[in-house]
């Protein structure tokens, strides 16, 4: 089974600008019921990023940052770790487990196609067990 068969497609992703305030990213996460937002690349050859609850908590709570003074750029993980949509999910799963990664962006030719999460992979494993 390939990554593209189980990933969340681009159309369902929440994408935010690097220059957006952190408060806006947090609002989008809450409104859309997601734990991460994709940070758009700043140029054609730039890198996509990711902002998670963990990034926000670390910046605001652990580092005593001011949510109203920080932009997404200040706290995002970039470049984000990514895989091709044509990769077999067993390799993606192995990478995620080995490196304690919960989410992988799905990128080909420097364009985003979706996101693959641990939840996506577990869903497939559970389906296979029930079949």
Question: How does the SSE layout of this entry go?
Answer:
Blueprint: H1 3-6, E1 8-9, E2 15-16, H2 22-32, E3 36-39, E4 49-52, H3 53-62, H4 72-75, E5 82-83, H5 89-99, E6 103-108, E7 111-117, H6 118-130
Parallel strand pairs: 2-3, 5-6
Antiparallel strand pairs: 1-7, 3-4, 6-7
Biggest pleated-sheet summary: 4 strands, mixed
Q: Which structural category do the helix and sheet elements fall into?
A: alpha/beta
Listing every helix as H and every strand as E from the N terminus to the C terminus, the arrangement reads HEEHEEHHEHEEH
Q: Number of helix segments?
A: 6
**Poorly predicted sequence stretches spanning 5 or more consecutive residues:** none
β-sheet strand percentage: 15-25%
Radius of gyration: 15 Å
Helicity range of the residues? Answer: 40-55%
Which strands sit side by side, in order, in the main sheet?
Answer: 1-7-6-5
Shape type: globular
The averaged pLDDT comes out at: 92
For the record, give the distance between the C-alpha atoms at the N and C termini, rounded to a whole number: 16 Å
Strand element count = 7
Could you list some keywords that capture this structure?
3-stranded mixed beta sheet; globular; 7 strands; about 40% helix; 4-stranded mixed beta sheet; about 130 residues; alpha/beta
What does this molecule look like?
The protein has 131 residues and is of the alpha/beta class. The chain contains 6 helices and 7 strands; from the N terminus they run H-E-E-H-E-E-H-H-E-H-E-E-H. The mean pLDDT is 92.
């Amino acid at each position: 089974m390939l990554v593209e068969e189980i990933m969340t497609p681009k159309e369902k992703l929440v994408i935010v600008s690097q220059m957006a305030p952190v408060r806006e990213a947090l609002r989008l996460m809450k409104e859309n019921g997601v734990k991460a937002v994709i940070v758009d690349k700043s140029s054609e050859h730039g890198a996509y990023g990711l902002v998670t609850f963990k990034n926000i908590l670390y910046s605001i709570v652990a580092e005593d940052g001011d949510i109203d003074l920080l932009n997404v750029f200040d706290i995002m993980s970039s470049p984000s770790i990514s895989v091709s949509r044509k990769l077999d999910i067993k390799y993606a799963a192995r990478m995620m487990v080995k490196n304690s990664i919960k989410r992988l962006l799905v990128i080909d030719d420097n364009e985003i196609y979706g996101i693959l999460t641990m939840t996506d992979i577990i869903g497939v494993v559970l389906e296979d067990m029930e079949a």
